[in-house]
C-alpha cells in the first residue's frame, strides 16, 4: 500500500476504538469476594489446627518436625492473604 493512501477502514478506526472502550459492560463481579473474611478465616484456621493436634500420631520426631513446618507455612499463607489481598502494591 502506498504512503498517504488510506484504506476505507482506516477512517473509522478511531471512532470504533472509542466506541468499544465506552460501551457499558455487565457487572460480573461476585460481592462475596470483595468483603473481608478475617473472622471466618481465623475460625477455619483454628479448627484445622485443633483437628490436626488431636488426630496426629506423636511417636515419630521427624513427623512432628514436618507437621510443625507445615503449620508455620499454613499460618504464613493466612497472614499473607489477610495482609496483601490484592497482590503487590
End-to-end Cα distance: 46 Å
Helix percentage range: 55-70%
Helix-strand sequence:
HHH
- Return the average pLDDT rounded to an integer: 76
Count helical runs. Answer: 3
Beta-strand content estimate: under 5%
Low-confidence stretches: none
Main sheet record? none
Based on CA atoms alone, the radius of gyration comes out at: 27 Å
Number of E-state strands:
0
Structural class: mainly alpha
Shape: elongated
Q: Could you explain how this protein is built, in words?
A:
With 89 residues, the protein is mainly α. It has a domain at 36-83. The protein has 3 helices and no strands. The chain has helices spanning 13-22, 38-55, 61-83. The longest helix is centred in the last third of the chain and has 23 residues, at 61-83. It is elongated and about 75 Å long. 0% of the residues are buried. The model has no long low-confidence stretch (mean pLDDT 76).
Briefly say what this structure is.
Helices cover 57% and strands 0% of the residues. It is built from three helices and no strands.
Summary tags:
single chain, 89 residues, transmembrane helix, transmembrane, Phosphatidylserine synthase 1, membrane
Amino acid at each position: 500500500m502506498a504512503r498517504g493512501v488510506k484504506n476505507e477502514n482506516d477512517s473509522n478506526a478511531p471512532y470504533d476504538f472509542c466506541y468499544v472502550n465506552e460501551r457499558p459492560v455487565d457487572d460480573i463481579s461476585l460481592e462475596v469476594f470483595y468483603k473481608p473474611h478475617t473472622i471466618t478465616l481465623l475460625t477455619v484456621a483454628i479448627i484445622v489446627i485443633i483437628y490436626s493436634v488431636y488426630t496426629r500420631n506423636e511417636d515419630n520426631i521427624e513427623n512432628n518436625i514436618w507437621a510443625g513446618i507445615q503449620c508455620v507455612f499454613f499460618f504464613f499463607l493466612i497472614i499473607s492473604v489477610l495482609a496483601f489481598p490484592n497482590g503487590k502494591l
